[in-house]
Amino acid sequence: MSELFVLTERPSVYLASKSPRRQELLRQLGVEFEELLLREAPGRRRDIVEEPRKDEPPLEYVKRIARTKASVGWHRMERRELAPKPVLGADTEVVLDGATLGKPADEAEAAAMLAALSGRTHEVITAVALRWQSQLALAVSTSQVSFRAIPQDEIERYVATGEPLDKAGGYAIQGKAAAFVSQLVGSYSGVMGLPLFETAELLARLGFPVL
Fold first, then answer.
1. Residue ranges per domain, the chain?
2. φ, ψ for residue 4 (rounded to 5)?
3. What is residue 124's DSSP assignment?
4. Whole-model pTM?
5. Do the Cβ atoms of 42 and 49 come closer than 8 Å?
6. Which residues contact 54 (CB under 8 A, 6 or more apart)?
7. Quick one: pLDDT band at residue 39, thresholds 50, 70, 90?
8. Would you please indicate which residues are annotated as catalytic (active-site) residues?
9. Alpha-carbon distance 197 to 195, whole Å?
């Protein structure tokens, strides 16, 4: 199959994610997309197990998960005999003292994560992978986010909003947690979940320029 693609309108991709933040950011770039959901329902075999391997560094974990999402999404597209388009996968993790903080399981874990981040600087790593035919391109964005000291009662009020429960590290920079951020060095969109600079570069590299 030819790997040439003639772009007639805006680039269009399959997004191997149900994240509303990533959807919002793709719209900001003017990229059309269709969701290509992967199996993650309890009781069924998941397409991707998002857990670090033993002694796997956070950076390697994030890159592996992003590549896997794009590759699994591509094969799912082929099995469903969908119209071929690039498949975009991404993964975002919050890293503190070399340890990955995933999504909190409950309010207590969210509060513990925020208490650990309070008054400190942590890393947010987002990897973006784009699969098109035999090509799999990857880019990584790493940002440093500093939180002011957050009183416990403020943490409890924030957790009670429900905002932290499906977010890596237990917070959403585009939400109320913006009030905690004293400094950001890096990519705001990367911390949200899809670094726009790197995403646009990947699309252009594979023949799908956004401008």
1. 12-205
2. -85, 145
3. E
4. 0.90
5. no
6. none
7. low
8. 91
9. 6
